[in-house]
Specification:
The chain is mainly alpha-helical. It has one domain: Ribonuclease H-like superfamily/Ribonuclease H (Nucleotidyltransferase, domain 5, 2-Layer Sandwich), CATH 3.30.420.10. The chain contains 10 helices and 5 strands. The strands form 2 sheets. Strands 1-2-3 form a 3-stranded antiparallel sheet, with helices on both faces. It has a two-stranded parallel sheet with strand order 4-5. α1 crosses α2 and α6 crosses α8. It is globular. The protein starts with a strand and ends with a helix. The model has no long low-confidence stretch (mean pLDDT 95).
């Protein structure tokens, strides 16, 4: 299961912690970012100050391939996070991400803690099931969660690369029409659907990079890789949503 999250500032936290009362959302977010700049000189909020607004996944099961966003657009954050960990509890999938260890999973930890969500399967390290002692979601060097950015960089910060650039390097579309730094603005303007669509194309990119990685490390031969890529194309072609068709068209143009 490839996954990705999109976040905005946790305005409830900002109002309470900084004593901002009834200030408008945009102002609260600006103050939170300004405080962060004062503390670190950077623009990116501390991970515990993020609120999740979208979680998208690609699921490759034995006979199927599917991309979607968890929950309905009206679902609150608690439901999104609960659905993510419920999927792990039910199916124990291998997880694949791009910078999931550095961003997505720590944010999910904090938000599950915030909402009191049971994520016991995810936190299993061998006390309840011995096999998790040697391969669990939490150990950086285990394979039950594969952070592609972390692994491909050899665990070196200076060697990390953006997903968009790696996807384009490999002949895939990369980002289409939005980037992560625009999510907060799009959220304030009420464009949640566009954020979910953007998140879905990101997990498609990640999955396609993952296939290439599987080919490189010998888990797929040339024929197997071609079959998996053909399955993705076929699945995308059957998905009638506009952003999926735009992605497929951009991929075809790159060939």
């Amino acid at each position: 299961m490839v996954f990705d999250i999109e976040t905005v500032p946790d305005l409830e936290f900002g109002r309470q912690y900084f004593g901002l009362g009834d200030l408008e959302d945009a102002t609260v977010g600006q103050i939170m970012l300004a405080r962060r700049r004062q503390q670190t000189g950077g623009e990116f909020l501390a991970l515990h100050q993020h609120r999740i607004v979208a979680i998208s996944v690609v699921l490759r099961s034995r006979d199927d391939w599917k991309v979607w966003s968890l929950g309905d657009p009206e679902a609150d954050e608690a439901e999104l996070v609960r659905r993510f960990f419920d999927g792990i509890d039910r199916f124990s999938p291998d997880l694949v991400s791009w910078n999931g260890s550095g961003f997505d999973l720590p944010v999910l930890h904090y938000r599950a803690l915030r909402h009191g969500i049971d994520a016991s399967r995810y936190w299993e390290t061998g006390d309840g099931e011995q096999s998790f002692r040697w391969n669990n979601y939490l150990n950086r060097f285990h394979w039950r969660h594969l952070d592609l950015m972390d692994v491909l960089s050899g665990y070196q910060v200076r060697a990390r690369a953006p997903l968009d650039e790696v996807a384009v390097m490999l002949g895939f579309p990369g980002k289409l029409g939005m980037s992560g730094d625009q999510v907060w603005e799009q959220w304030r303007d009420g464009h949640l659907e566009g954020i979910r669509n953007y998140c879905e194309t990101d997990v498609i990119n990640t999955y396609l990079v993952f296939l290439r990685f599987q080919r490189m490390r010998g888990h797929l031969d040339e024929q197997g890789y071609a079959a998996e890529e053909a399955l993705v194309r076929e699945s995308l072609s059957r998905d009638g949503r506009d952003h999926i068709q735009e992605y497929l068209a951009a991929w075809n143009e790159r060939e």
